[in-house]
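Q: Okay, next protein. This is ABC transporter substrate-binding protein from Maritalea porphyrae. I've checked the sequence twice, so it should be correct. Can you predict the 3D structure?
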Amino acid sequence: MTKAPILGLATALLMSTTALADIKIAHIYGKTGPFEAYAKQSHVGLEMGIEYATGGTWEINGEKIVIIEKDTQLKPDNGKALLEEAYGDDEVDLAIGPVSSGVALAMLPVAEEYEKILIVEPAVADSITGSNWNRYIFRTGRNSSQDAVANAIALGGENVHIATLAQDYAFGRDGITAFREALDSKGFSIAHEEYAPTDTTDFTAAAERIFNAMKDLEGEKRLFIIWAGGGNPMSKINAMDPSRFGIEIATGGNILAALKAYKEFPGMEGATYYYYELPDNPVNDWLVKEHFDRYDSPPDFFTAGGMAAGIAAVEAIKKAGSTDTEALIEAMEGMSWETPKGTMTFRPEDHQALQTMYHFKTVVKDDVDYGIPSLVRELTIDELPIPIRNQ
């Protein structure tokens, strides 16, 4: 009569021990909403990164890796609550995400409160590893300064006048601030700045202010646009014929769907985080081949980022020898690891991943339905003086 309860207790203890042995990673990201495409790529990349780094086993030292997905719906309050749930109720070892910079900023204090690692991927705002940073935050994604410095190198020059248009929130404003500083460091400046709400679809008023500010300037004139999601300001402003004022449109890289708009701009230059044909390394070779085999399409902008985050998590746990937070921090500060973009390194001062960027020129081909970012040259870590903004 007493054996059954004892057996039941033993079974429960065994199941509990087995569950505790899992390495649990929360992926908290905007699965629904205007950045849905970014989110899907990020998750596919994360899974492929873990697969690559574990040799397909999804295990580290015999412990199985489990991903718990949570959808922020791009709402900061949701991101905060879901990260609290992941650390508290789900008892995850670390978290990765989100897509939106605004959501990320709401999540940062939660990592500090729970003393758990949050790997930020792909949210971009400088303040994430800047003024709002804490020691539990590591970012594999590029920050606004990396975009800005790379684009300043690609676009700036003597007698070049640049106006800017960006979304009026952390991503856009941090990006333009960093771009302005990067130009200033080279002795150049921004001629005019415009900011528009994230849901803007009519850019007529903003474009007219830019044209009026630029039309009488002598020299090369470029309008540099930072935009995420819908709206397509490039095509809409181009339809207003900025060339009548000698103004060329310029922008950084983007996902393949957004590159369709680039087909209107042969020869347009900028700097990009990733395009699948630009890097030359074994990790990217694997990613490109496997992605074509599995999805019949190339990996995209945020697929590479998700993969970098997945590999970073695995390599950090291997190096630390555990999922203990303090051991992970010690292992990750200064850690270098291989990604689809080549070697990345977590800078010890702010845990920002230093990484290569790519200066491109847009090439148009009849049989490709988007503008192709053709490599002008790699911009290496040593060429990108990224400010430390958390001090």
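A: Here is a summary of the prediction. Residues 3-142+280-354 form a domain with the Rossmann fold fold (CATH 3.40.50.2300). The radius of gyration is 22 Å.
Q: Noted. On to the next one.
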